[in-house]
Amino acid sequence: MKLPPSTIILKPGNSEQNETGSWRSLKPVVDAEKCNGCGLCWLYCPEPAITKGKPVVIDYRYCKGCGICANECPVKAIVMVEEGQK
Amino acid sequence: MKQLVTGDEAAAIAAKLARVKVISAYPITPQTIIVERLAEFVADGELDAEYIKVESEHSALSACLGSAAVGARTFTATSSQGLMLMSEILFVASGMRLPIVMANANRSLSAPLSIWCDQQDSVAVRDCGWIQLYCENNQEVLDSTIQAFRIAEESLLPVMVCFDGYILSHTAEPVEIPEQAEVDKFLPPYKYPYLLDPEKPITMGAVGVPEYYEEFRYMLQEAVLKSKEKIIEVGQAFGRQFGRKSDLIECYRSDDADVILLTMGSLSGSVKEVIDEYRGHDERVGLVKVRAFRPFPEKELVDSLAHAKAIAVLEKDFSPGSTGALFSDLSGTFVNSRKSPLLLNFICGLGGRDVSSLQIREATKAAMEAAKIGEVKKTVRWLGLRETMVGLKP
Ligand code: SF4
Ligand code: SF4
């Protein structure tokens, strides 16, 4: 297999193969009552971890716990809780 | 048309003639005039480019990564501490094979704080995977900057065009400015083969795990080595079109010389004067000027130096605890060759100190003495050092 000159991956969508969920120490939890479905968290999430909707659904196989969604949510519908806690 | 311009202006005019699409830079003495001129060109509508203002050199070069990745012809400029702040991103640019062109006005590094010229800044990042070209005068600044875009784009490597701060950056000289139409012919619009395009998503700059990292570094090494041919080819094409050709090195009255001085940058001009004096007295002394420091022109240097008895390497940098960088590279080049001249190293012109013809003669005499007795008494010497101040003399 001849490599491209730099670490370029020409096939799109490969982040789906890379399950980053095991990196997480903080877990985003969505408050279904508060979420208005604006989609900002989906836009900012760096992983394919959020599915749009009202409320949004988080796929914990990919969620790495960065907390960007909780930070961006305009109505504070996402809180970060420590893994292993309820 | 000839115009009286400084080295900084020559670099800015060259970037404009190259029709750069993105400029991102942060002002730093003695490079500031470059970005000031380019900002004016953009503001006055003379240059159709995006001028990205940033808060540091680290960000400037990071912005350049992005613009080069979307296929825009990209230019930046810096110097000294600014280059140091860029150093992390320098390696990313070459590793990602992005053809960015940078002008670096050579300036010494802190501490002590100094805004004046030496070549420690760009020499310190010689391992960053960029092509490095050094200029002797303002015409070379303009010519090399234009050529740099073609070298970069055809080798998929970033290129740093280095020229001495103040000595060139702030000194006006007559420079032949080519016509826009001619530069357009020399530098057609280019297409980066791995475009960052939301319509066709790809991953750029992915992790290189241990199973792959070494292969990517090997390919970088091969690419930089191979760019030697490209530098020669582009230098010749430039010569055919504009009447001034460039090469990896320049030999000045060195073909039959017993003693050859080796330099980089503006110092070469002063050395040529001294060589002419010696030649006037029938002394066989010559100069070889290194234009491309990376890739290092090993074969070309061996071919042009091996016949001499002694080589004096004059350089405005040193590696504390070792020798000058040019000297150590040259020594490595000769290590396996059958015949090696004696090699002497002269550290000079640090922090903006003038290198006088007296000092150049001192180096030449030492090399002649070594050639005569067949041995080098002292490998590394410092020219112009005030010995009482450092306790070498009472
Ligand atoms: S914590 Fe980070 S990775 Fe997880 S859903 Fe929020 S933004 Fe995405
Ligand atoms: S940003 Fe907040 S309100 Fe908007 S969709 Fe995400 S969780 Fe719901």
Could you walk me through the main structural features you see in this protein, from its secondary elements to its overall organization?
- The complex is a heterodimer of chains A (86) and B (394).
- Chain A has helices at residues 40-44, 68-72, and strands at 26-30, 50-51, 57-58, 78-82.
- Chain A is of the alpha+beta class and 86 residues long.
- Chain A has a single domain, classed as Alpha-Beta Plaits.
- In chain A, a hairpin with a 5-residue loop joins β2 and β3 (57-58).
- The termini of chain A are far apart.
- The mean pLDDT of chain A is 94.
- With 394 residues, chain B is an alpha/beta fold.
- Chain B has 2 domains: 2-242, Rossmann fold (3-Layer(aba) Sandwich); 249-382, 3-Layer(aba) Sandwich (Rossmann fold), CATH 3.40.50.
- Helices cover 42% and strands 18% of the residues of chain B.
- Chain B has 12 helices and 15 strands.
- In chain B, the strands form 3 sheets. In chain B, strands 3-2-4-5-7-6-12 form a 7-stranded mixed sheet, sandwiched between helices. Chain B has a 6-stranded mixed sheet with strand order 9-11-10-13-14-15, with helices on both faces.
- Chain B is globular.
- The model of chain B has no long low-confidence stretch (mean pLDDT 97).
- The interface between A and B is medium-sized, with 13 and 19 residues.
- The complex binds iron/sulfur cluster (2 copies).
- One iron/sulfur cluster (SF4) binds at residues 30, 35-41, 56, 73, 75, 77-78 of chain A.
- One iron/sulfur cluster is lined by residues 30, 35-41, 56, 73, 75, 77-78 of chain A.
